[in-house]
Design brief:
The protein is α+β, with helices and mostly antiparallel strands and about 200 residues long. It has a single domain, classed as Histidine kinase-like ATPase, C-terminal domain (Heat Shock Protein 90, 2-Layer Sandwich). It contains 4 helices and 6 strands; from the N terminus they run E-E-H-H-E-E-H-E-E-H. The protein has a 6-stranded antiparallel sheet, with helices on both faces. Helix 1 packs antiparallel against helix 2. The longest helix is centred in the N-terminal third of the chain and has 21 residues. The two termini are about 25 Å apart. About 25% of the residues are buried.
Length: about 200
């Protein structure tokens, strides 16, 4: 995986062929990358299983000519896993019976993540994402501190005639965030990421 180091956030992107045989390598590189980032051990274990399930689903949903992409983002609070495949169909949660050998992947993702969902991508295909509780462990020897933001003296203003209330709608905010994520071309190979034809590519 190609990583971008930062004291507050770590990001890595990888591409792999759409075959189930590639999943063990993806799984191993996920554990190695998160361990090198000093991510919480429980989060690494959960991410290992989530990546395995999402990568397997993406490989099964892809066409032979596709390249599946995965992005991991780790902060002090969470590990975000995003997996892209070229299939526009949304993921389906199945309810397998006790004798079924498959169909439990997204149920495991739901159990191990604080939240998960999917979003369509403008260039085609979809991204299935999951947030894993835990993240980068604080460095006890770190002395880095961001410079203080400049401040200004507030200007007195008249009190509003009516009380002002703010409301948040998590569902609406999630749709806005996913729509913005869908504009990002991180899933494309580096050589295609800024190509003019990339914006018109369809699955």
């Amino acid at each position: 995986m190609t990583a971008e180091p930062s004291p507050a956030i770590r990001v890595a992107v990888a591409h792999f062929p759409p075959t189930v045989a590639a999943v063990p390598e993806v799984r191993a590189r996920t554990v190695l990358t998160l361990s090198q980032w000093s991510v919480d051990g429980n989060a690494v274990s959960s991410a290992e299983i989530v990546v395995c399930e999402l990568a397997s689903n993406a490989a099964k949903a892809s066409r032979p000519q596709d390249v599946v992409a995965i992005r991991m983002t780790a902060t002090l609070g969470i590990v975000l896993i995003e997996v892209w495949d070229g299939n526009d169909s949304p993921p389906r949660v199945k309810t397998p019976d006790m004798f079924s050998e498959d169909g439990r992947g997204l149920l495991m993702v739901d159990e191990l993540s604080s939240q998960w969902w999917w979003y369509p991508v403008k260039t085609g295909g979809k991204v299935v994402w999951a947030e894993i509780p835990g993240g980068l462990e604080p460095d006890p020897q770190a002395t880095h501190a961001d410079p203080a933001m400049p401040t200004r003296t507030p200007t007195p203003v008249p009190e509003p005639a009516e009380p002002v209330f703010y409301q948040t709608d998590p569902g609406t905010l999630r749709r806005v965030v996913d729509a913005l994520r869908g504009l990002d071309t991180w899933h494309l190979p580096p050589s295609d990421r800024h190509a003019p034809e990339a914006t018109a590519r369809t699955a």
